[in-house]
Amino acid sequence: MSITSITAQQRLDSRGKPTVQVQLTTPHGTFRAIVPSGASKGDYEAVELRDGDKSAFEGNGVLEACRSVTDVLGPKIIEAGLDPSKDLKKIDQLMIDTDGTPDKSKLGANAILGISMAAARAGAAARGMPLYQYLADESGTPSKDFVLPVPFMNVLNGGDHSGNPMAFQEFMIAPTHATSFAQAVQWNAETYSALKTLIQSKHGKGAIGLGDEGGFAPPIQHPHEALDLLMEAIKIAGHEGKIKIGIDPASQSFFTDGKYNMGFKTNAPDMLDAAQLGDLYRELLEKYPIVLLEDPFGQDDWSAFTEFNKDCTIELVGDDLLATNVDRVKIGEEKKACNSMLLKINQIGTITEAIGAGNEAFSAGWSVFVSHRSGETTDDFIADLTVGMRTGHLKSGAPARGERVAKYNRLMDIEDELAAKGLTFRYAGEGFRDAHKDV
Ligand code: PGA
Ligand code: ZN
């Protein structure tokens, strides 16, 4: 089953910035993918090619990346006669080799990823199976049953994703005690609605504006203010004790000169060293039902991660620290820096490498947490990926805004489809960290 055409077009992401769309055609149809983009990006991510021509989109155009697809990579893949139903690894490898740089900076990770995603979709269609099954096969996931993830929904936005003074980037709600994915979505949506009313009553109507990931961005600064708001909203919605909390401070965004500046969005610097910041996290962990902490320290602050991980009982996730890069995951394992890898497909630029990094993390006994980007599209690929890899949890922002809910809606479709087919599946629930091990 050969590919007959691969083209790319410049489209928009959820922040109104250009991004790459790929269309890949086979005898089974035309398969599309649109690439996401981050704001709080780490230095170890694969490179997103931007035109730099200031006369268009302030230099953010991706026409060059589109040409990488249409003029360079597409013709090469077609000429090689590769078949997406069985050759995804070869397609990805051919793109890596053609680019030839360690960070995909020549042809662009945005170009390469678009083809990789569209090829996976074409492969699934050729094999007559849903994308999550194709990705389960690609990942080597044991196929006993399917696991629907706990949706960690970011309902309070700060950091680089909003205009409020809060340094921490994300406060997520995780309905670990729900019994199905659909119920988890419902509980989170009810809590989100309660949070809106609460913010309005405490801070006024003008305070219910949203950040980039659809969460509210009220004029608060300190993490305990955010957590108190969440606890109250969970209680009002009637889900006390059943919804837990995750935090992604994205601390690289406020790391300067060896310190963490909790006041980085205000005129009053509030500098903490890694030990003081660690103490703050421990205080929060003691007081609130937090089950997951991501990037508590900067992307090169390995020693702070290792120190914190020593007596850490919750999930400690490396995002900017690991960049979905198998080499950095191995360093993390050696240094015992964390116990979970965030998986962002555009951090590395091919589906094969993202799965490879995730499998390396699994083999170390870690968890894998699948993630969207703050600049998203309505492409719902990661919903299938989280089920295919059986990661047990994912984050895709608030239960609001089309590009965020596209993933949650797709996961509800998958849950319904599995039920209709009579296949065995379950909601990850409290065991979300170990969903992959539990077969
Ligand atoms: P980003 O944020 O997509 O802006 O990098 C997400 C995250 O830090 O997890
Ligand atoms: Zn993060």
UniProtKB/TrEMBL annotation:
Necessary cofactors: Mg(2+)
Q: Record's PROSITE patterns?
A: ENOLASE (PS00164)
Q: What GO terms are given for molecular function?
A: magnesium ion binding; phosphopyruvate hydratase activity
Q: Which CDD domains match?
A: enolase
GO biological process, any: glycolytic process
Cofactor binding mode, per the note?
Answer: Mg(2+) is required for catalysis and for stabilizing the dimer.
**SMART domains from the UniProt entry:** Enolase_C (SM01192), Enolase_N (SM01193)
Which residue positions are annotated as catalytic?
E213 (proton donor), K344 (proton acceptor)
GO CC annotations on file: phosphopyruvate hydratase complex
Sorted keywords for this record are: Glycolysis, Lyase, Magnesium, Metal-binding
- Where along the sequence do coiled-coil regions lie? none
- Catalysed reactions listed for this entry: (2R)-2-phosphoglycerate = phosphoenolpyruvate + H2O
Q: Which residues form the Enolase N-terminal domain?
A: 3-135
Q: Which InterPro entries match?
A: Enolase, Enolase-like_C_sf, Enolase-like_N, Enolase_C, Enolase_CS, Enolase_N
Instruction: Kindly list the positions annotated as binding Mg(2+).
Output: D248, E294, D319
Domain Enolase C-terminal TIM barrel positions:
145-435
**Which pathway?**
Carbohydrate degradation; glycolysis; pyruvate from D-glyceraldehyde 3-phosphate: step 4/5
Q: What is its EC number?
A: 4.2.1.11
PANTHER family attached to this UniProt entry: ENOLASE
NCBIfam families, from UniProt? Answer: eno
Protein family (similarity comment): Belongs to the enolase family.
Protein name in the entry: Enolase
Protein's organism: Oleoguttula mirabilis
